[in-house]
Amino acid sequence: MKKIAYLLLAAVALCSCSRESDLKKSIFIPDSDDSRLPAYTEWGYNTFGAYLDREVFIYNDNALPFKAIAYSTTTELQFNGEIYEEFHSNDEKVSLIVKTSSILLKNAEDFSLLNGKSYQLNDPSFQVYLERNGVRTKLSVGQGVLTFQRVQKIFIDRKYTEMILSGYFELSAMQNGSLISISDGRFDVGLKNGYNFTYQPI
Questions:
Q1: 8 A C-beta contact, residue 91 and residue 43
Q2: Contact assessment for residue 45 and residue 25, using Cβ atoms and an 8 Å cutoff
Q3: In this predicted model, what pLDDT tens digit does every residue of 129-143 receive, in sequence order?
């Protein structure tokens, strides 16, 4: 019994030591309905996924899946990924960008204030953009919602290390005269000051 206890403690210690670099990795747990999408989780797996019309828009391993840039009057949230291709024949880079004056933060820890909150993306204080292969276009959102289902502070050895943001998003919008929809969006991402969060007081 003691051996088992020691092994468990060693495993926890190893996990704790590796946690510092977890923001550089993603852990994919497939959704039970569509294995191309990540399941909804709240463990900081650094994943997101959604349907962009009928295509799968998902994080990739070449870019940080989530970034937040805060300014004195606005905050910009970025979901960076690609259109899913089974054999990576396309690899079209896609980002969903949400800019808002309704969320004003100065550090990653301030995201704890968003725990359990939902935001309507057609509110005038929100601007939504879709960027495909470096070309950014503004969306005219008819309906849409961004929900921070759970926001957690992660501590290792009683020392704060990062935030975990988990939730959902969806929208329908006009883009260059065409209707597009993003549906079944889910995210589970880590956030850390100086890594994928920055504050620019301008």
A1: no
A2: no
A3: 999 999 999 999 999
